[in-house]
Design goal:
six-stranded antiparallel sheet; seven-stranded mixed sheet; 32% strand; alpha+beta; 5 helices
Length: 301
């Protein structure tokens, strides 16, 4: 299931000194420009650079994320976190968060929460579409034939399927009747055959669907309970790439697919949503979202 969010990033260079604490501890430090800090470590790597650490305040729709440096240290600027309870999560392919998952940020002091990571229980669930494509065996032509799948769903959905060639062929044929950016939570159907030169003959299309199904059957779980290929993951950020602060905004409806975002002179973000007659407005300061219904001018199309 895809989460509807906006994401903004700002560079953050913060210099401060911190006392060393044991993993899994939470304690207050002296007043600082940093609201929350700690070290990210694992048994496999020790201090870990490039781990995305995210904090979300209870009841909020805004998530703030920072990245750990070469010493495994992460820092949340005070300007980004108001006092209150926060839940923590991490993003580091191959690892899961062991704890702590909840911290209390206080005013005028720095809260310290060291984080220990453990080997991921389900690496496949962490892979991005790019990592799935890199992991899949096959020629570039075969991989190119399934890149468009990501317009509507993840490649993990394909890789975890257990359909054989015949069932995959029928699924692909059915999906050919959906427009791009139709997705499982909001399925849409083409109201007419695709235009622009006309369609290929049915026999030719069936042959193409079957070739695609034959390839998909080699990368899914139709013939074995485990994948026959190893997973290839992308490297974590390093150096200057870790000096960043990300801000994510949850959108009220899971069906939202924002695009063409424009920020006006007041700093308010406006966006359209694929497949929906919606104009959305987001206030980055509060996270408040307002939807405006766009009039349907041609209801029969």
């Amino acid at each position: 299931m895809r989460k509807r969010v906006f994401l903004f990033a700002t560079a953050a260079a913060i210099a401060a000194s911190f006392t060393h604490t044991k993993a899994m501890t939470i304690q207050a430090e002296t007043p600082s420009s940093v609201a929350l800090t700690g070290r990210v470590t694992s048994a496999e790597e020790g201090p870990m650079e490039g781990v995305i650490v995210s904090a979300k305040k209870a009841g909020s729709t805004i998530t703030i994320s920072v990245v750990s440096d070469a010493e495994g240290r992460y820092r949340f600027p005070s300007a980004k976190l108001d006092p209150g309870p926060y839940s923590l999560r991490i993003r580091a392919v191959g690892y899961d968060l062991e704890g702590p998952r909840d911290v209390e940020v206080t005013k005028a002091t720095t809260t310290t929460a060291d984080i220990k990571l453990i080997t991921a229980r389900d690496l496949a669930s962490q892979l991005s579409n790019s990592e799935w494509l890199a992991s899949f065996p096959g020629t570039e032509q075969q991989k190119a034939s399934i890149r468009a799948c990501t317009h509507c769903h993840t490649l993990e959905r394909v890789a975890r399927s257990r359909y054989d060639v015949d069932k995959l062929t029928s699924v692909i044929q059915r999906m050919s009747t959906y427009p791009q950016l139709s997705f499982p939570m909001m399925i849409q159907k083409l109201v007419a055959a695709r235009i622009g030169g006309g369609e290929d003959p049915l026999e030719q299309r069936l042959a193409g669907w079957r070739r695609q199904a034959q390839y998909l059957s080699t990368i899914n779980l139709s013939e074995a309970p485990h994948w026959s290929y190893s997973f290839k993951t992308l490297p974590r950020p390093k150096g200057r790439a870790t000096k960043v602060v990300y801000t994510e905004y949850d959108l009220p409806q899971k069906t939202r697919q924002p695009h063409d975002v424009i920020v006006d002179s007041q700093g308010v973000a406006w966006y359209a949503s694929f497949g929906e007659m919606i104009l959305g407005k987001l206030d980055p300061k509060t996270g408040r979202v307002t939807d405006y219904q766009v009039p349907l001018l041609k209801p029969n199309l």
